[in-house]
Amino acid sequence: MAGPAKPRRIQRTRPRLGWLLPWIVPGALLGLWWLAGERHWMSEQVLPPPSLVWQSLVEFGGGELWPQLGISLQRLALGLLGGVAAGVVLGAALGASARLERLVYPTFAGLAQVPTLAWIPLFMLFFGIGELLKLMVMIKAVIVPVTLHTLVGVRDAQPRLREAAAVLRLPWYLRLWRLTLPAALPAFMTGLRIALGTAWASLLAVELLASSEGIGYLMVWARQLFMLDVVFVCILVIGVVGLLLDRGLAWFDRRLLFWPHPPTAAFQRRPVNGIAQRLEPWLLPLALLVLWQGVLSLGWIDSQILVAPSQVLHTTVQGLANGNLPLALGQSLGRTLGGLLLGGSLGLLAGLLLGLARPTERLFGPTLGALRQVAIFAWVPLITAWFGLGELAKLVFIAFAAFFPLFVATQSGVAGLSPQLDEAARVLRLGRLQRLWLLVLPGAAPAIFAGLRLAMIYAWLGTIGAEYFMPGGGGIGNLMIAAQQVFQLDRIMAAMLLIGLTGALINVLGQALEARATRWRSQ
To answer: ∠ at Cα 195 (253, 410), nearest 5°?
Structure first.
């Protein structure tokens, strides 16, 4: 007698054409671009057809493109070498000594509040527009994240390592090689990845502003001649190089750090005890100010090369009193708010759509990820060619700068929500809008507001960059460029002071909004 029939095995087949989803959007855009060129919907000087861009890629790829790219990569390597070396030494010293951290870190953090872009006019006056300018910009962009993350890595490992070194009776050199370096390496690699992206974007910015060689200069040259096909080629190359640099460093990170470690490290100030320790952070800035004022009063440095801090303070007070600085700052903040509203809204919407729907993420995610790899300042020539140099171009650039931080944070926050929320929505019979308002947004709020804080900072940095590259219309960036052209150091430093303070206040405001919106998590 035959036994019972075996149940048929149900196989779930995956869609055979699922691999095509990531290619639909770029394919559609390429097709629309080709159709616009074939039908002559737009002039070739405004939107060159894909065939012309490919022809330019072949022509420049066989000649001028790679030497110019090589010059930029050489500058990047030198800047990384100098900035990483200085950042590692400074960060390790601050992390190993609590007193040194109290003495030096507040001054370092105060100078770091002034973004790299805001230093460029001052560096131009000090170092000219040659290679030294590019090197100093690179070092400034790299030293801040490397120092901070090295400090955290060395400092957080110290308590455990001291006890282990005492038990093992290790001499100082073995303790450094066997314990301190492996413990601090994860935080250092995180800082290095941040520094690499910042340095690449800063290099393009300074090459766009003041250079006669490099990939940034090639874009400026092509933009001035309205050869947008060459601009498209440069954008493509910049995006590919940025992707290769980031993925290469990520691969090296995975191969180097084979032991378990936290992905990120947070900086927390050491506790301060007593009045003496509370006064220590003020010693270094006061000493620097006294030295600065002293060497100028004694005539050791020409006042045409470096103005006294008293003159900077006088110019700042005078500019605030006559309304020039508040007017310029107000114009810049207005642009920041407008770009943040536009770019942030689009970033939030896109993040929600891609986070909630897996097919939507597979459809649009790779295209947005590819656009994100292109350094923000690489879009400047294209934006100015399409939108001019007025307020619309500035708004588009600032919105573009604010879009990706909020988009990435929102998408990751929504995608990381617990699957139990779907069960709760079904049990409560919530509609889509109710589910979004009552479950998704509260659950993803920490990530969304963290992204909003970053978007606010990037919008402010984008505002300074937009006012540099698109002159006219006022603003604190235009004020700095105008002062640099007539060698008014006091006005440049006064503007830098306001830019740093405004950036710090924007960061504090973002942290306050994040804490207030997510205060329910600590209850």
So the answer is: 80
pTM of the prediction? 0.85
Q: How would residue 262 be classed by pLDDT, with cut points 50, 70 and 90?
A: low
Query: CB neighbours of 169 closer than 8 A, spacing ≥ 6?
Result: none
pLDDT score of 11: 46
Measured in whole angstroms, how far is the alpha carbon of residue 59 from the centre of its chain? 33
CA separation, residue 425 to residues 125, 263, 352, 361, 431 (Å): 61, 32, 17, 22, 8
Sequence-ordered alpha helix ranges (H) in 323-376? 324-356, 358-372
- Cα separation, 185 vs 196, in Å, equals 16
Q: What is the pLDDT of residue 345?
A: 93
Instruction: Give 2-58 pLDDT, tens digit per residue.
Output: 455 444 444 444 455 566 777 888 888 888 888 887 777 777 777 888 888 888 888
Residue that has been written with the tokens 């207005």 in this structure: 334
* Dihedral Cα 16, 19, 21, 23, nearest 10 deg: -140
DSSP annotation string for 80-149: HHHHHHHHHHHHHHHHH-HHHHHHHHHHHHHHHTS-HHHHHHHHHHHHTTSHHHHHHHHHHHHHHHHHHH
Structure tokens at 427: 């049990």
